[in-house]
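Standup notes, protein team

Yesterday: finished cleaning the Actinacidiphila acididurans set.
Today: N-acetylglucosamine-6-phosphate deacetylase structure.
Blockers: none.

Input for N-acetylglucosamine-6-phosphate deacetylase:
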Amino acid sequence: MAPVTTTQRTVLSGARVVLPSGVVEGGRITVEGTRIAADEPGEQATVDLAGQGCTIVPGFVDLHNHGGGGASFTSGTAEEILTGVRTHREHGTTTLVASTVTESLDALARQAGLLAELVEQGDLAGIHYEGPFISPCRKGAHDEALLRHPDPADVRKLVEAARGHARMVTLAAELPGGIESVRLLAGLGVVAAVGHTDATYEQTREAIDAGATVATHLFNAMPPLQHRQPGPIAALLEDERVTVELINDGTHLHPAVLELAFGSAGADRVAFITDAMDAAGFGDGMYDLGPMKVEVREGVARLVEGGSIAGSTLTLDAAFKRAVTVDRIALPDVVRAISTNPARLLGLSDRIGTLEPGKDADLVVLDEAYDLVGVMRRGEWVVRPA
């Protein structure tokens, strides 16, 4: 008769723990196998964090990420993409959606097939198409020659190329075919995101009514808020159906603008993203972003031609620390923005986004200065606390 084996239980104790019900001082998290378990008596290993000023939060969830560790999700091989995934994982992102940039439809479809394999392996949580269905007036770091109107047939082609793993498509809904494509995406269960847009307030409202539910990096690559022409920003902030992405790196948004977004939308409608490119976790230098050349200097990525900001070099642990220590956002609200809300948008709230029994054992341990000292993903340490 084969011996009976038991799954190892590990208890993390003595830390501040951020739960859906609030912040618990001197709390405990029990991990059994790949899941968080109820705290019950029995044989277990203990990781004692008492006296270290540590905080345990859910693993971070990034909805919008183009690469890292020197690797691109748009043009990289499977091995290169996994390098980028591991880089962000070491910075606390336990769930990651791979974002593309504007390329030809055929090139995007081919890359989507590769990314879909990595979703099926469990390394990625899905695919986000940012471009080519965006406004040339607000193109940012996208090749204008490759932009196109959001024809529903083309949108469907890219969704189908992702083999059921397309999670989000960013588009400028004011372009011909835009509203029809928003309705198509909503019907297919894919998030339609308003971004890289020159839409008016009224056109943005129409897109939301058609099914758009996300603002792609709010404030960036869209008309500014004006008192007689409120544009897309006012429409996206005011509507309870919309979650707004924010890049909290100190470059993309002034702290006062971040405060405005949080105050207007509320903590349940904010999702921190990185919009990271290859240089995240890697360093300054010259990079490719799709067909575009990018120079990263002092951590800021800009197109060589034109100087537009080209994504970020942000990692979500840095965004978390900045939100708490610089922006003075309440700890539970930061957790909502960086874990709970994006998990809900991905339809994964039953598995990730909060620290609750039965959910994946995805968690981040931060020290008293809110620097990352530990990362666990599905019960395995990615970064083990000292």
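Follow-up from PR in the comments: The chain is about 25% helix and 25% strand.
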